[in-house]
């Protein structure tokens, strides 16, 4: 299919509006009609570009998911300790840069594995947790999960922290929890 600039703009506007709606109301509370209305188009136009609400969600999450895939691939080529260090720094940056996405993801965590469009994101998230754990110890994996949830929550509600202050706060928090030595 050839994409024209007008079609690309419409697609971009649908994704942009969906992000705002998902973040403001939550994924489950937003309908395709809500997205269409916010984007200034018909529901049929949304369905022309996406095969359902989950596909819109996948498009909203795609930039962050693509960056996560790059991080996981890079960490996969490193020794375990170096991969953990890298994952801590990169996840902190990712979470701050995509804080709106973190807001959307937080609601989806209980059902995310049921959304086929997010299968790769889930797999990469599990790999990131492995790298953050830094070992095969089940306690370290639980701590990594705890750290991920805490960091995501902090990025959702950063108070009046600037991005740099939030990045520093999250980086220190992850290091103290995951690399206490």
List the defining traits of the structure above.
181 residues; mainly alpha; 9 helices; 76% helix; 0% strand
Task: Write up what this structure looks like.
The structure is a single chain. With 181 residues, the chain is mainly alpha-helical. It has helices at 5-25, 32-39, 43-49, 53-76, 80-97, 99-108, 119-133, 138-156, 163-178. The longest helix is centred in the middle third of the chain and has 24 residues, at 53-76. The model has no long low-confidence stretch (mean pLDDT 91).
Share in helix = over 70%
Biggest β-sheet description: none
**Structural class, from helix and strand content?**
mainly alpha
- Tell the overall outline: elongated
Residue share in β-strands? under 5%
Poorly predicted runs of 5 or more residues? none
- Arithmetic mean of pLDDT: 91
**What separation lies between the terminal Cα atoms?**
54 Å
Number of strands: 0
Order of helices and strands: HHHHHHHHH
Radius of gyration: 18 Å
User: What oligomeric state is this?
Assistant: single chain
Number of helices: 9
Record the SSE blueprint:
Blueprint: H1 5-25, H2 32-39, H3 43-49, H4 53-76, H5 80-97, H6 99-108, H7 119-133, H8 138-156, H9 163-178
What's the short story on this structure?
The chain is mostly helical and 181 residues long. It contains 9 helices and no strands.
